[in-house]
# Entry
Amino acid sequence: MHVRHSPDGPAVIRFRAAGVFLLLAHLLFVGWLTLRPLDVPWVTAANFQPFAGIRADLALGLAEALRRIGEGLLLLAPLGILLPMAGGRLLVSPWASLARTVAAGALISMAIELAQTGVPGQVVDVDSLLLNTAGVALSHLLVVPLSRSRLRRGNRAGAGDLSRIGNGTRASLGEASQGATPTITRVGIAP
# Structure
């Protein structure tokens, strides 16, 4: 087992722990909201045609369309911030971070839609997948790059310039390497 130690210490660990806690809390809320059975007199048919549901929402009027589309955008939007927060990386390509976060958001949305096939009163809608993924991307783009740059600036003032860290090893900071981290060999399990 290889354990990486952060040069920033306990602050990064607390930040990541808060991110993981908030991420799990949000996912539990989303699961409760989207996967609970509904007692409804009738259910619309599943929508597998992209943008058909959005067009139907727009036909209901501007206020109703904004409410329904906004709900779709906002449901998983916090994942755009919480997933990178749980990762705790400051030095990462903005495009790679966006791609990873949007892919994870799309997979979570797809899992919700697939799980809804077995829940009474819930209907699969491909537009929900599109709106949820767009919400993740928008929240990530609006918050994460600015937050990371502010955290890097604050970190430079307190702990040295992080731009020299490279891949996170202590040797890139100009300090001598202390060798490989000791590992414990695997022990077989007795019958």
Q: What stands out?
A: The CA atoms of residues 44 and 94 lie 40 Å apart. The two ends are 24 Å apart (CA to CA). Residues 159-174 have pLDDT under 50 and may be disordered. Residues 126-159 form the longest helix (34 residues).
